[in-house]
Design brief:
The chain is an alpha+beta fold and about 220 residues long. It has helices at about 1-10, 15-35, 40-60, 65-85, 90-105, 110-135, 140-165, and strands at about 170, 180-185, 185-195, 205-210, 215-220.
């Protein structure tokens, strides 16, 4: 009987503030590892797993309390938006405040949640400083920035190449209603009809570029 109570206590441990505190520490630690390691996907996945375990445990001890996980999801959406918006904007502030709020609400007293955030923040800053002294850099972040810059450069180069085709003769190799395919100098391109439906095999003219599409219209003779 005593062993049964010990097992029950062990099962209930996950619903305590101490367990929540540890999950916050571990989860934010995975986020720090994502910043200094190129294996971002692995550590970010572990960050989400620890937090979803945290929120699930709180649902167990606070019936139908789904507010923290809902706020957490919305805060993550705002953080993702911040990544794609240059500079530090209101979306980043909302994301951070949303995360802090979601953590604070998972504790029996919000002060414990704020304490967990402050402690984990200080420990992770100390850890990152220590790794900097060991010669590590923000590899994960720089890897993401470089990848984004490379994609932007590639898109710009592609746009410039397509822009050179403006004024060129084209031939539709499919119907355009309004999207389809055309040949320009023997090369196949995605195209959009400027004015309504265009049939296959028509002589066309490239009049503009929009994204990765050539805007084409009937050639006026």
């Amino acid at each position: 009987m005593q062993n049964l109570f010990l097992a029950a206590d062990a099962n209930l441990f996950i619903t305590t503030d101490i367990a929540a505190f540890l999950l916050v520490l571990v989860g934010t630690f995975f986020l720090s590892l994502a910043l200094i390691n190129k294996k971002q996907n692995l550590y970010i996945t572990l960050f989400f797993i620890t937090h979803f375990v945290l929120f699930a445990s709180r649902v167990l001890c606070q019936i139908n309390n789904f507010y923290p996980i809902a706020i957490f999801i919305f805060s993550c959406i705002f953080v993702v938006l911040e990544i794609f918006i240059p500079g530090f904007t209101v979306t980043g502030v909302i994301g951070i405040l949303g995360y802090i709020t979601s953590i604070a609400l998972t504790f029996s007293n919000y002060r414990y949640g704020l304490l967990a955030i402050v402690v984990s923040l200080n420990l992770n800053i100390s850890f990152i400083k220590f790794m900097f002294k060991k010669g590590y850099t923000l590899k994960g972040l720089s890897h993401f920035v470089l990848s984004t810059q490379a994609n932007l450069k590639e898109n710009k180069e592609e746009f410039n190449e397509l822009n050179k085709l403006v004024g060129k003769d084209a031939e539709s190799i499919s119907s355009l209603g309004p999207t389809g395919f055309v040949l320009v100098n023997g090369i196949k391109y995605n195209a959009v009809s400027y004015d309504g439906y265009l049939d296959n095999g028509l002589a066309l003219k490239v009049i503009a570029v929009k994204g990765r599409y050539l805007i084409v219209d009937k050639e006026v003779k």
